[in-house]
Design a protein that fits this description.
With 217 residues, the protein is of the alpha/beta class. 36% of the residues lie in helices and 27% in strands. The strands form 2 sheets. A 7-stranded mixed β-sheet has the order 3-2-1-4-5-9-8, sandwiched between helices. A two-stranded antiparallel ribbon has the order 6-7. A hairpin with a 2-residue loop joins strand 6 and strand 7.
């Protein structure tokens, strides 16, 4: 089941297809470094959930290459077709993070040692962002790691993204700290990194990486 919001994003990413992946080729080093750090913390074969996996590259592919047991989750059927072809070692599910409202749905997806959500919780108002973090925690074992990445947004001016214009919601480091605490997570740190701009965007972007843990109790 896909929410109306998820359906909107599914339509967008269905239309982008591999254009999305190509626009970031060679421009995801901060993301790759963060995933490499995550794998250093995990045992071989650890279960990792990649929420908003898109075409499977680079993150799902990197996790599989590192010996993780990976499930990729996305709302876009077209992206999942590419992901299954490009990263056959992983399993992929068509699912919406914001539709998992009952314990049976959560049990069907399973509990993971870590969850990564890179550039999926974007442009959400505070309460919705907090809800997303709580849902990620529900899919992660007690003591498990959550790695979340979002662009740093100073204000609400219009921005360009792959030749599309939109008005994003503010998201600063202090916002991420606050959202994570409100979601009941143990915050380790929020790291700020700069990455080259994707194709169709003029300026390089500042990326915020939230490192947090699902509390043991």
């Amino acid at each position: 089941m896909i929410s109306p919001e998820g359906a909107h994003w599914a339509d967008l990413f269905d239309s982008l297809g591999l254009e999305y992946e190509r626009s970031f080729t060679g421009k995801r080093q901060a993301q790759i470094d963060a995933v490499a750090e995550l794998m250093c913390r995990l045992a071989p074969g650890a279960r990792v959930l990649d929420v908003g996996c898109a075409s499977g590259r680079p993150t799902t592919e990197q996790l599989c290459a590192g010996g993780m047991d990976v499930t990729g989750m996305d709302v876009s059927p077209v992206m999942l077709e590419h992901a299954r072809r490009q990263v056959p070692q992983a399993r992929f599910v068509l699912a919406d993070l914001f539709v998992f409202d009952d314990i049976e749905a959560l049990d069907a997806l399973g509990v993971h040692d870590a969850a990564v959500c890179l550039f999926c919780l974007v442009n959400l108002p505070g309460p919705r962002f907090v809800d997303g973090l709580r849902r990620l925690a529900a899919l992660t074992r007690p003591g498990g790691t959550l790695l979340v990445a979002v662009p740093e947004i100073q204000g609400t001016e219009e921005v360009r993204f792959i030749e599309r214009t939109y008005r994003p919601a503010r998201c600063l480091s202090e916002d991420l700290h606050r959202y994570a605490r409100q979601a009941g997570l143990e915050v380790e740190r929020v790291e700020t990194r700069t990455e080259p701009a994707p194709d169709g965007q003029a300026e390089p972007g500042t990326i915020l990486f939230l490192w947090a843990r699902n509390p043991e109790s």
